[in-house]
Amino acid sequence: MEYTGLLEQIPIDSGIKQTYYMQMSEKEREIVMKTMSDNFSSQDEPKVGIFWYGKDIDELFGISKIEASELQFNTNGLKTIKTLHKSWWQKQKNKAIATGKELGIFINDYTQIPRGRIFQRKDGVFQLMCGSWINDHILDLIKEEFDLRNIQLEIKIDEHWEIGHGWSEEYGL
Q1: Using one digit for the tens of pLDDT, what is the confidence trace for 61-86?
Q2: What is the predicted pLDDT for the residue at 37?
Q3: What's the chain look like in SS3?
Q4: Where are the domains of the chain?
């Protein structure tokens, strides 16, 4: 919606509830700008999350991440996001189908594309869980994306993250 300078409420039917667009007051703007500026110093905090590596495009995609400091350790002493690769992939596939778009890469099974996950342990060490497809170049992309450049990082290779593998079928997920 283009800003017109009008102060009246413009109702938008979002399908869930009535939504209104309004001009911010000076006080609201001040609060919002202060809130955003307070985040300047935390832009490089290390993150945990999931990703895929696209060989054809030579970059990470499907990235879902959050600052590790925002999460609590789970009962196993680890931090990571709750999003599962399989669920994220299926959601993207469903979106493409619903909008009549080409499935593109999502025509494949989620395990057919190199993927990985970043964890943090209670001792502060970050862990990259991935398959044996990892190399120094991909590792650099991951470190940059998840702000892990100057952080202790262990790389753990496991069959689960090998291309074509996954254990979710064993657990009925």
Answers
A1: 999 999 999 999 999 999 999 999 99
A2: 79
A3: CCCCCCCCCEEEECCCCEEEECCCCHHHHHHHHHHHHCCHHHCCCCEEEEEEEECCCCEEEEEEEEEHHHCCCCCCCEECCCCCHHHHHHHHHHHHHHHCCCCHHHHCCHHHCCEEEEEEECCCCEEEEECCCCCHHHHHHHHHHCCCCCCCEEEEECHHHCCCCCCCCCCCC
A4: 10-41, 42-161
